[in-house]
Amino acid sequence: SAARDSKMNKEYVAAFEKANNMRPNFISLGGYDGMHLIYEALNKTGGKTDGDSLIGAMKGMKWESPRGPISIDPDTREIVQNVYMGKVEKVNGQLYTIPFATYEAVKDPLKMKK
Known about the structure:
Blueprint: H1 7-20, H2 26-45, H3 51-58, E1 62-65, E2 68-72, E3 79-91, E4 94-106, H4 109-112
């Protein structure tokens, strides 16, 4: 959410708005996090780009995103992230999702049933 109260998120939102004349959305943030993951994995592999090296580097990786802490589960290779419950409110004439509850380090519930 563009309303998430963290320094990193505020900086991300401001930079995105300046570059694109619009607020970021979950798609832009997914791209941001995906590129961060690839960049850090390439650093860990010393530039090796084969699948085994990159996947090995990504397993267990953790970082701080504008949306909060993220990690890659080393067993399932799935993203683990906070889930925010929010309500939509109009702020300065624009709609924002205002978080009111946080569920930390949520794994994909369908993968957990196996």
